[in-house]
Amino acid sequence: MTTSEKPPVWFWVVSIIALLWNLVGVMNYLNQAFNQVALLEAMDQAQRIAFEGIPAWATAAFAIAVFSGTLASIGLLLRKKWARTFFVISLIAAVAQFIHWLFISNAVEAFGPSTYTMPLIVIIIGIYLIFFSKKGIQKGWLK
Predict the structure, then answer these.
(1) Transmembrane stretches, by residue range (predicted)?
(2) What global pTM score does this model have?
(3) Residue 19: partners with Cβ closer than 8 Å, 6 or more residues away
(4) Are 90 and 68 in contact (CB under 8 A)?
(5) Residue pLDDT, tens place only, 47-62
């Protein structure tokens, strides 16, 4: 569609919430990257082993997920089509990170079954934002 439609108010509300959600992810990444001592002090031995065993590729996937999700959210607010591409990249990176965290490491044993909760929420929101941006493209809200 080549016509540019004015997005409804709920588009802006969802876009702002998406940005805030992704900024929380950036804060979590930065906390994990730069505040490791404090995080480790709050963990028991099994949790420390799981946390310290995170490989560089999983940490990189975490960074890619949160920063591309933030860029995608900014893209929504700027009404740009490329937001969808960045949401897809974000979801793929998040899934890669979660594969390690949930199925390769001993995180579930160390942190308990609630370890599945946040990855599930992130994946559901990621899928929703991909479809949301696709709808924005179809409706002409994103150019």
Answers:
(1) 9-30, 54-78, 85-104, 116-133
(2) 0.91
(3) 70, 73, 74, 76, 77
(4) yes
(5) 999 999 999 999 999 9
